[in-house]
Design a protein that fits this description.
The chain has about 290 residues and is of the alpha/beta class. It has helices at about 45-60, 80-90, 105-110, 110-120, 135-140, 150-160, 180-195, 210-215, 225-240, 265-275, and strands at about 15-20, 20-25, 40-45, 65-70, 95-100, 125-130, 165-170, 195-200, 245-250, 255-260.
Length: about 290
């Protein structure tokens, strides 16, 4: 396989074939993200992609899942995107699910009809970086959308097409000042989207990012450990999913939580209270990571 640069994937795609279709991210301006720093976004040439798909078919003939990377491959022109899915399915007929990252930019480009066609080609899940439902926070982190309501519309279009949606949110990304506002508004947006999965990560400030610069200049202060737990509690309090999963068990989290909502929601809130009272051991700093 012809991999270039940093290859990232969701934890749930650990056993999937990873097919790198694009290099970099079409937005690549989020203040917190170092992943594609200095990388110019481009789509790989068709010959390379065909070679990789054929190799995957030979090496993993019975594979059931495939994940398309890099950061925003759904944004590529339809005249290349749809034939790519067709070729993947022709070469790997046993696949049951294809996954892909998406942004507000790429979901704006994809019509409901196009998403339904991709669903027919086994696109089964889209991973969407919501990060926050708070418009002011979205603007501050240069997310590419300044409207939590736009994310509701875009994600519901995905659901209408019959595709599962997994949303990522960030604890601490609004800083101390807007911490609980961000938490509540994010919970409200998650409730309106009602995704299949929510992944909550704790913000880790990476040297060289614009968020790092803001912290050094005193324009951003990350909540302390207690503040991060209070923010998580507020977010879960305002997040009411019909039957989705809320996971705060990423390596960055101090208190790993994985709950089926709504059944385990109250138990999770009680666990956070116990942690706030010092009765639950939190993850040591050296054990955390991106």
């Amino acid at each position: 396989m012809h991999y270039e640069g940093n290859i990232i994937r969701p934890p749930s795609e650990a056993r999937s074939i990873i097919l790198q279709v694009t290099v970099g991210c079409s937005h690549n301006r989020c203040t917190f993200c170092p992943t594609y720093a200095g990388v110019r976004f481009r789509i790989k040439d068709e010959a390379t992609l065909s070679t990789d798909i054929r190799y995957a078919a030979q090496a993993f003939p019975g594979a059931r899942r495939l994940f398309i990377t890099d950061g925003d491959a759904l944004v590529i022109p339809w005249k290349r995107l749809y034939p790519l899915f067709q070729e993947i399915n022709e070469q790997l007929p046993h696949l049951t699910r294809i996954g892909i990252y998406a942004s507000a930019k790429s979901l704006r480009r994809r019509s409901l009809e196009e998403l339904k066609l991709l669903k027919e080609q086994k696109l089964g899940i889209i991973y969407y970086g919501l990060e926050s439902g708070d418009d002011e926070t979205l603007k501050a982190i240069d997310k590419g959308t300044t409207s939590g309501e736009e994310s509701v519309v875009l994600c519901n279009k995905v659901k209408e097409a019959g595709i599962k949606i997994s949303t990522t949110v960030m604890i601490g990304i609004a800083g101390q000042e807007r911490s609980l506002i961000h938490a509540r508004r994010t919970g409200e947006v998650l409730t309106a989207i009602d995704p299949n999965y929510v992944g909550a990560l704790v913000t880790m400030i990476v040297p060289g990012t614009r968020l790092d610069e803001a912290e050094r200049e005193g324009r951003f202060t990350l909540p302390d450990q207690r503040g991060l737990l209070l923010e998580l509690k507020e977010m879960i309090t305002w997040t009411k999913l019909s039957k989705g999963m809320f996971m705060a068990n990423h390596a960055s989290n101090y208190l790993p939580i994985k709950i089926h909502s709504p059944a385990q929601r109250e138990a999770a809130l009680k666990m956070i209270d116990e942690a706030l009272n010092g009765n639950v051991q939190l993850k040591e700093e050296w054990m955390r990571g991106l």
